[in-house]
Amino acid sequence: MTDNVKQNLMIDENTAKMFEDYIPAGGVTTPEKMAQQVLYLCSPAADVITGDMLIADGGQWLVGNAFYQMGKRFLDD
Fold first, then answer.
1. Which Pfam family, an example, fits this chain (predicted)?
2. b/e map of 27-58 (b: 16 or more CB within 10 Å)?
3. CA separation, residue 52 to residues 4, 6, 49, 62 (Å)
4. Predicted confidence band at 75 (pLDDT cuts at 50, 70, 90)?
5. Would you place residue 40 in the very low, low, confident or very high pLDDT band (cuts 50, 70, 90)?
């Protein structure tokens, strides 16, 4: 998680750790990993991918949004 995300979402270290624990891939992505995905999509290896939406959320959509899960946890307590 970048410092910018933490600052804009007012997330402290404990909350950031809880947020990352909800993501199946082990945490939020990095700018470098996102750049690798863009480079792949611009490469000949991805020439059969057309007009699709690629979700790069570390698997959150499979288990439910991490923000929702965290909020639900606080409400349930």
1. adh_short_C2
2. ebbeeeeeeeeeeeeeeeeeeeeeeeeeeeeb
3. 29, 30, 7, 18
4. low
5. very high
Q: Nearest CA to 28 among 11, 41, 43?
A: 11
Cα-trace Rg, the chain: 15
Which pTM value belongs to this model? 0.60
Place of tokens 């059969």: 48
DSSP 8-58: HTT--HHHHHHHHHTSTTSS---HHHHHHHHHHHTSGGGTT--S-----ST
Cβ atoms 31, 5 nearer than 8 A: no
Burial of 19: CB neighbours in 10 Å, binned 0-12, 13-18, 19+: buried
